[in-house]
Every structure is written in structure tokens, then in C-alpha cells.
Design a protein that fits this description.
The complex is a heterodimer of chains A (329) and B (230).
Chain A (H helix, E strand, L loop, with lengths): L2 E12 L2 E12 L3 E5 L6 H8 L7 E6 L2 E2 L6 H4 L2 E4 L10 H11 L7 H11 L15 H13 L5 E4 L8 H16 L4 E6 L2 H7 L2 E6 L2 E3 L7 E2 L1 E3 L2 E3 L4 E3 L9 E4 L5 E3 L9 E13 L2 E8 L1 E7 L1 H7 L6 E6 L4 E3 L1
Parallel strand pairs in A: 3-8, 3-9, 6-7, 7-8
Antiparallel strand pairs in A: 1-2, 1-4, 4-5, 9-10, 11-15, 12-13, 13-14, 15-21, 16-20, 17-18, 17-20, 18-19
Chain B lengths: L1 H15 L3 H34 L5 H12 L3 H12 L14 H25 L5 H7 L4 H11 L1 H16 L3 H7 L9 H10 L3 H25 L5
Helix pairs in contact in B: 1-11, 2-5, 2-8, 3-5, 4-5, 4-9, 5-8, 5-9, 8-11, 10-11
The chains are: A alpha+beta (329), B mainly alpha (230).
Chain lengths: 329, 230
């Protein structure tokens, strides 16, 4: 399998602050990857590096095993489609915008009609093809920008926070569009999101960024505090962790490793807290619960479990997890 | 007061009678200013777009220089070009002094910084996402510039019209380099200045009114270009 990107010894410094520090990282081609992290974790900076719109202060990036020294040449540029967080469409119709992209990529004009039609169909935009870009809603605008980016059939699609500021209906449409592009042979999709369950739901792999560094820990249930002899103090709760890393400042707990019950469980699990349900949300094939036990926990359960437990908002519940489910870093 | 009103009536009569003398002056003035604006635009628009789209050493210095040149008195430009084009000057053998070409060169130099500065402002006031979007879609240097001009075309056209307005109202350099030769280099402004001093107040007033009408049309065009978009 070829690599879409190989990052080596990357350092990006903004105003004397290191915002991204990646010693080595490889992104294989043909995968749908969610770039997860809180605001300010360095997601947009990494997206800019992958789009080659920003250069790192230090280090090198390879695109399909080619080291990129300066700017991308036209054939390299054609392999990457980029959709920014707030996409900009030029004046004119949706079709005009797609046509411009094809023109800028030096694609033969005889191919325009078929490529435009394909892109519009893939994003379910055929009915809006003649609509002025200025009159599109937020969700339509994002889909039009994705149609424009995939019209020239790039190998990589980069999407910066594609789901932000969208309602559920538009999020579903976008998720389907991203997944249908990713399903094609050897297409790489990298999208950033701060909504971790959503990223997990549609991506093959997740790439977790925390304070400019890639971390193996899932960034769910991320708590900051201090670790003292396996006991991590968040300031509100003491959570027992299996590992005892010196100087560790953060822990993360996989939401699928947390067990929900109506009564306290008698088990070997070292962590058990009671709280109440404050949010129940449907994800793809799963239910996401938010439980308030002084700290807020995200828990993912199956729809069957939700029915079985007969949970409703405000219900008192117990959550339990093993100390091995706690990643310390 | 009667003198002024009588002169105004005479001036209006001159305009309404389509006096060939007056309209020849207007035609000279408009053609010289149009050619000067065209030359200045061909140079200033690409230069302004390049300057707005790129970061390079000395950019701030060029910006300061442009601001200084915008405020340069027209007679100073006239004086410098007079030195170059006069018989004893380094370009004296070109024989340009007291020709429309000399006036065109002077006016083009005069309005170049205005057009370039306004073009820079036009591009800078475009949506900040425009440039990264075009680059990410594969635009090279030339296609980037062409598409930025396409998006900001109304503001750039306003820059050209402003330059033309400045050129047609210019008097100092036109006087020094053109010499107010009838049918050749006599422009509206030089005619107003010189004919009035010779006692031809009606002619000056008629030309002044026509200049005002041109200024009004230009301002109307500018406000039409800057009208709020629906």
C-alpha cells in the first residue's frame, strides 16, 4: 500500500509558540481518516500543511512518496482536493464554480459536462446546478464546495471541519457524500472535526491531536489534572488509572469501555461513579450518552442497550470502567 | 452680477450651438485623457494586482512611494518632463515637447500611482478566502491574477475611472508640456486657464460647464459601480 503522506520531523511555530510537533507520521492512501482534537489542538494547521498552503518551519512532507520542497506542480496539485472550514464560492452558479475548478486544473473542455454532472450527482446537487452560489444555504454551500473539489477526481480529499454549523439533516447528507467518495478505490479522505463520536462513526481511522502533538489516546472523555500513584485527580473526581506515568497531565477514557447500569455493579472495575443522564443522541448505529458525575462523561452504547435500560433524560445511573480503560499521557 | 449672468448665458449658447471650436477642445481633452488612462491602466492594474497578491522585500517601501507620488503636485511632473523633453534635455531629440504625446506621458505618470493604489485596495478588500481558494483549486500565478481581476473588476474599473477623472481635470503638466496649441494640445483645462486670462470668459465658462458635466457623469458611473448589490 502506498502512503498518501509521510511527515517527518515537522515543527510549525506561530508567534514563537510551537503549534504542531510531529516527529514522524504516515497516512496510508485509501483510508478515511478523522483528525480529532479540541479547538487549538493544531487541526487546521495540520490541514494547511497537508494541503500545502502552509510550509512547516522545520521538517519535510512527502506526497505519494515524492518529497515536496517548494510549491506543488500542477499534476501534484490535481491529486489534492481541499475544502476549507468556511468554503468560498465565486460569484456565479454552482456549475460555474465547478467549471472554474476544471479550467484551473487544465482539464479538456470536452470533458466538462460529464465531470460536472458526476460531481453534482455525487453530492446530490443536480437540482441546484444553476442556482447562484450566493443564494445557497450553509449545508448546500459546503456540498457545492466539495463537488467543486472532487470534480477533477483528486486522490486525496481534505475537509476542514466539514460538519461545523450544520443542522442534523445537512450533516447526514455530508456524511453520506464523504463516505461515497471514500468508498472509491484508493481515495484518501482526511477530515478534521471536534465532534469525536461523529469522526469515529464515519472514519476508518482516527488521528488524535492534542496540544500540537499526535497522540495514540482516543480523545474522548479527556480530563486534565495530575496523576499521583495511579490516582488521577481532575479537580472534581479521582480516577484510578492502571499506568503511572511521571509528569502525566491528561487522561482519556474510551467511551465504549464505560458500562452503564441502573444500580452500582459488583465487579473488579476500579472506577464507579453515579450521575445522571443529561444528553441522549443518536449516532450512526450507536447511541451517545452524556452522563454528569461532577465531570461529564461521553458513553457509547447500542440502541438495544438503551431500550433495555429504558433510559430517559435526568435518570440516575452508575457508570463503571476498568483502570486499564484509562489512557494516561 | 450681470456680467456673470450674461457670460453664463453666452456660455450656454456656445454649448447649445455645438461650436466646433469648443467641441474640438473637448475631443482633444477626452482623447488625450483616455489614451493616458489606457496606458496607465495597462501598467497599473497588473502591478497593483501583483503587489496585493504577493509578499516581497521592499513592498512597504513601494507602498510609501506610491502614497508620496499620489500627492505629488502636477507641475512638478510637468517640470521634470519639461527638463527631459526640452531641446537641451536628454530626450530633446525625440521632439515631444508641445505635442499630445508629451501630455499623455505626463498624465499617465500622474495617474499611475492613483490607479495602482486603488487596484491594491480593490484586491485587498476582496474576500480573504479568494486567494487560498483559487490556489487550492490549482491556479498558477497568471490564472490567479486573472481570476482575482475578474472578481474585483468593478472596483478596478472604479480605479480606472478615478484616474481618468484626475487626468481630464489636470492643468499644470498639460500646460507646461502641451503649450495649449489650438486643435493639437489645447485641452479644456489649459483653454480655461489661458482663454480666461485673455478675456474670453464665456469660452472658459462653457468649457468649465462641460468639464463639470464630464465630472458628473464619471461620479455617476462610480456610484453606479459601488451601488449595493442585491
Amino acid at each position: 500500500m502506498t502512503n498518501a503522506y509521510v511527515l517527518n520531523d515537522i515543527k510549525v511555530i506561530h508567534q514563537q509558540r510551537c503549534v504542531l510537533d510531529i516527529p514522524h507520521f504516515t497516512i496510508p492512501s485509501g483510508k478515511c481518516i478523522a483528525l480529532l482534537g479540541e479547538n487549538g489542538a493544531g487541526k487546521s494547521t495540520l490541514m494547511n500543511l497537508l494541503a500545502f498552503t502552509e510550509r512547516p518551519r522545520h521538517g519535510s512532507i512527502q506526497l505519494f512518496d515524492q518529497k515536496i520542497a517548494g510549491k506543488l506542480n500542477s499534476s501534484q496539485r490535481r491529486r489534492i482536493g481541499v475544502v476549507s472550514q468556511q468554503p468560498y464560492l465565486l460569484a456565479g452558479s454552482v456549475t460555474d464554480n465547478i467549471r472554474l475548478a476544471l479550467k484551473l486544473q487544465h482539464i479538456e473542455s470536452s470533458q466538462y459536462p460529464i465531470l460536472i454532472e458526476q460531481a453534482l450527482e455525487q453530492l446530490n446537487l443536480s437540482q441546484l446546478k444553476d442556482q447562484s452560489a450566493q443564494s445557497l444555504s450553509g449545508g448546500e454551500l459546503k456540498r457545492a464546495a466539495i463537488a467543486r473539489a472532487i470534480a477533477y477526481d483528486p486522490d486525496i480529499l481534505l475537509l476542514d471541519e466539514p460538519f461545523s454549523h450544520l443542522d442534523q439533516r445537512h450533516i447526514r447528507q455530508l456524511e453520506n457524500a464523504i463516505q461515497s467518495f471514500a468508498k472509491q478505490t484508493n481515495k484518501t479522505v482526511i477530515f478534521s472535526t471536534h465532534d469525536q463520536p461523529q469522526g469515529l462513526a464515519i472514519a476508518d481511522e482516527t488521528l488524535n491531536l492534542h496540544a500540537g502533538k499526535i497522540t495514540a489516546a482516543p480523545l474522548f472523555n479527556l480530563f486534565h489534572g495530575a496523576l499521583n500513584q495511579h490516582n488521577f485527580n481532575t479537580g472534581k473526581l479521582i480516577i484510578h488509572a492502571a499506568s503511572d506515568l511521571p509528569n502525566a497531565r491528561h487522561i482519556a477514557i474510551d467511551p465504549r469501555e464505560i458500562i452503564i447500569s441502573r444500580q452500582p455493579l459488583e465487579s473488579s472495575m476500579r472506577n464507579s461513579f453515579n450521575g445522571h443522564v443529561i444528553l441522549i443522541a443518536q449516532e450512526k448505529n450507536a447511541i451517545r450518552l452524556t452522563i454528569d458525575c461532577e465531570e461529564r462523561f461521553q458513553v457509547i452504547i447500542s440502541p438495544e442497550s438503551l431500550t433495555q435500560l429504558n433510559l430517559a433524560l435526568g435518570d440516575a445511573v452508575w457508570l463503571s470502567f476498568k483502570s486499564t480503560a484509562v489512557t494516561v499521557f | 452680477m450681470t456680467y456673470f449672468i450674461d457670460s453664463l448665458i453666452a456660455a450656454l449658447a456656445l454649448i447649445m450651438s455645438f461650436d466646433s471650436h469648443i467641441y474640438r477642445i473637448v475631443a482633444t481633452s477626452v482623447s488625450i485623457s483616455l489614451i493616458a488612462s489606457l496606458i496607465a491602466a495597462i501598467l497599473a492594474v497588473p502591478a497593483g494586482v501583483f503587489m496585493a497578491l504577493n509578499r516581497f522585500h521592499g513592498k512597504a517601501f513601494i507602498q510609501h512611494l506610491l502614497n508620496t507620488l499620489m500627492a505629488m503636485p502636477t507641475v512638478v511632473i510637468g517640470l521634470l518632463l519639461y527638463g527631459l523633453f526640452s531641446r537641451l534635455g536628454p530626450l530633446g531629440h525625440w521632439g515631444l515637447l508641445y505635442t499630445p504625446i508629451a501630455v499623455i506621458i505626463a498624465e499617465a505618470i500622474l495617474i499611475f500611482p492613483i490607479m495602482m493604489n486603488l487596484t491594491i485596495t480593490a484586491v485587498n478588500s476582496a474576500d480573504p478566502r479568494l486567494k487560498p481558494t483559487l490556489i487550492s483549486l490549482g491556479a498558477g500565478h497568471l490564472s490567479l491574477a486573472i481570476n482575482v481581476i475578474r472578481v474585483t473588476r468593478f472596483a478596478i474599473l472604479a480605479a480606472i475611472i478615478t484616474g481618468f477623472g484626475r487626468a481630464i481635470g489636470e492643468v499644470g503638466a498639460a500646460m507646461m508640456l502641451g503649450g495649449n496649441i489650438e486643435g493639437f494640445t489645447r485641452t479644456m483645462t489649459t483653454a480655461i486657464a489661458l482663454e480666461t486670462s485673455k478675456g474670453e470668459f464665456e469660452l472658459g465658462l462653457a468649457l468649465g460647464l462641460l468639464l463639470l458635466i464630464i465630472a458628473f457623469v464619471l461620479n455617476f458611473l462610480l456610484s453606479w459601480l459601488h451601488r449595493p448589490k442585491p
